Amino acid sequence: MTWGIWLTAGFVFACSLASGQASAEDAKQFSGLATYYSKDYEGKVTSGETYDPKQFTAAHRTLPFGTRVRVTDANTKRSVEVVVNDRGPFNDGYVIDLSLAAAKELGMIERGTIEVKAAVQ
Predict the structure, then answer these.
(1) Which of 32, 42, 59, 102 meets the CB 3.0–4.6 Å disulfide criterion with 98?
(2) Domain tally, the chain
(3) b/e per residue, 66-80, with b = 16+ CB within 10 A?
(4) How does 19-56 read in b/e, with b if 16+ C-beta sit within 10 Å?
(5) Is 61 part of a structural domain of the chain?
(6) In what helix (H) or strand (E) does residue 13 lie, and over which residues does it extend?
(7) CA neighbor of 102 nearest in space, from 121, 74, 83, 76
(8) CA 23 to chain centre
């Protein structure tokens, strides 16, 4: 009898994950390493827009295009608000790619990657 209860509970949990209903709060805040676009990057981003290094934009793996995210440097506490318009980063451990303007505002150009805390606005 106990085995059946665990099997049912596992099935319900798996279905909630598949349907995207698991803890909506987790999707609103995240942390990890941030990178930024190369100074030489040109072209279109996944949303179809042309990348503009002067705009405060970002790439995230799953957040919908147009989502506003407050990104805060975990060390300096400086923050910027960016708009998601691209997909990425695709390397483990990295949670967001920032435009050159956002990276400059955070003072991360010299440092490369930084540890950030981010919150959907």
Answers:
(1) 102
(2) 1
(3) ebebebbbeeeeebb
(4) eeeeeeeeeeebebbbbbbeeeeeeebeeeeebebebb
(5) yes
(6) helix 2-18
(7) 83
(8) 17
Host domain of residue 62: 28-120
Query: Among residues 110, 98, 107, which one has the least CA distance to residue 75?
Result: 107
Give me the CATH number covering residue 54: 2.40.40.10
| Cβ neighbours for 66, distance < 8 A, ≥ 6 positions apart | 83, 84, 85
Say what the pLDDT of residue 26 is.
57
- The token duo for 101 is 């303007």
- Percentage of residues of the chain with pLDDT beyond 90: 76
Q: What is the pTM assigned to this prediction?
A: 0.77
User: Which two three-digit tokens encode residue 64?
Assistant: 């919908």
pLDDT tens digits for 3-61?
444 433 444 334 333 333 333 445 699 999 999 999 999 999 999 999 999 999 999 99
Contact residues for 105 (Cβ-Cβ < 8 A; gap 6+):
56, 78, 80
